[in-house]
Amino acid sequence: MSSLKQLLQEESKGNMSFDANENDVIETEFFGIERQNNRRVVMLDLRLKGGIFFSLNYSYIIKMKFDPSEMLEIFGADVHIAIRGRNLHELYNQLNRHKVVYIQESISGNDLTPENDLFVKEISVSESS
Question: Is the whole-model pTM more than 0.85?
Answer without folding.
Answer: no
